[in-house]
Structures are given as structure tokens and as C-alpha cells.
TrEMBL record:
Signal peptide: none annotated. InterPro entries: PIN-like_dom_sf, Type_II_TA_system_RNase. This is Nucleic acid-binding protein. The keyword Magnesium applies. The keyword Heme does not apply. Keywords: Hydrolase, Magnesium, Metal-binding, Nuclease, Toxin-antitoxin system.
Length: 139
């Protein structure tokens, strides 16, 4: 069966308790769900930035708690790598001069390399990627 690959936005929606996303995840087969190492990178960057910017005990404690929750989440899901196949696909997409952000293009490359379906919130950007299957759960 085809992998459903959650984009970073959908991971964030899930973490914030968005009912549409939670309901869709509940009804999906967990074996068919995945995230990318790109989303892991984006979320870790955000959590580490929160820790750096913390100016009070409560904000620091909260930031570290959010880091732990994020680590636990990524330990509980299948994380797809940015491997040689993804890199080759990424380079091909770069040569096409698509007007898509680098991180989204990396996520798209991973999805294309495993024939997965990306589940983004910013579907407009992902729709620019040829042959990429996209499904939006937040609408």
C-alpha cells in the first residue's frame, strides 16, 4: 500500500490537537504513515530555537518539555531518510527550476523516491512538482 507522508505543517497540526488531522490519522493504517527526516530537521530547529530564546525559567522548562515531546513523537513514527535516491530526485527537481522552497522540494523528492503521497497544508507549492501525489487533510 502507498505511504502517506505527513508534511511538517500536518505534524504541527497534529501536535496542536487539530481534530481534522487527528481524525484522519486515527482512521489511517499506521503502517502506511510516515514523516521525513526533513520534517524532523525543521521541528528540531524550531525546538532548539525556542530553548535558545527562552528568557525565563518557565519558558525554558516549557521549551525543553516541547523538545522531549517532539523527540517522543519522532520515535513513534516511521521517518523516511534523505538517501541517494531522494538526492538524485531532488537534483532532477532542482534542474526543472520549480518555484518551490528547498525543504518542500526535499520532502517531495523523498516522496517521489518511495512513490508516496505527501499530506501538506500548503498544497499549492507541492502541486507544482510533476508526478507528485498530494492529499490535504486540513481543509
Amino acid at each position: 500500500m502507498t505511504l502517506l507522508i505527513l508534511d511538517t505543517d500536518h505534524i504541527s497540526l497534529y501536535q496542536r490537537g487539530d481534530l481534522n488531522v487527528i481524525n484522519r490519522l486515527s482512521s489511517a493504517n499506521s503502517k502506511n504513515l510516515a514523516v521525513t527526516v526533513i520534517s524532523l530537521e525543521e521541528q528540531m530547529y524550531g525546538r532548539l530555537s525556542e530553548i535558545k530564546k527562552a528568557t525565563s525559567a518557565i519558558s525554558l522548562i516549557t521549551a525543553y518539555s516541547r523538545l522531549e515531546i517532539t523527540l517522543d513523537y519522532f520515535k513513534s513514527v516511521q521517518v523516511l531518510p534523505f538517501d541517494q535516491n531522494a538526492h538524485t530526485t531532488f537534483e532532477s527537481l532542482i534542474r526543472q527550476k520549480l518555484r518551490v522552497g528547498t525543504q518542500d522540494l526535499r520532502i517531495a523528492a523523498i516522496a517521489l523516491s518511495v512513490n508516496g503521497i505527501v499530506v501538506p497544508r500548503n498544497q499549492k507549492d507541492f502541486d507544482k512538482v510533476p508526478n507528485l501525489q498530494v492529499e490535504n487533510w486540513a481543509a
